[in-house]
Amino acid sequence: xxxxxxxxxxxxxxxxxxxxxxxxxxxxxxxxxxxxxxxxxxxxxxxxxxxxxxxxxxxxxxxxxxxxxxxxxxxxxxxxxxxxxxxxxxxxxxxxxxxxxxxxxxxxxxxxxxxxxxxxxx
Length: 122
Description:
mainly alpha; 2 domains; single chain
């Protein structure tokens, strides 16, 4: 039974073997000294998180920029912006803001009127 793919076997076998006898040691390549510390581990984790957030932020910024640059009336842009942020006054949102309303859709009387229900399903 083989645990590795043929390509992986070839790559493993191509690793040069060091014939000098040395003791193995652990090394943390994210630190100059090679030693792991909680501080260095935290820094690596935060850097990765910031990089991911930065990447997501750039995509989101580009999306909003493309929305605001569309050649459509401003009121349509504002409507799309509010819809994307779930800021339209559908009945369920009004209920969340303590406006005393029945959240059941007035058109179908079957479901609560969420933003998705009002715009797409009803």
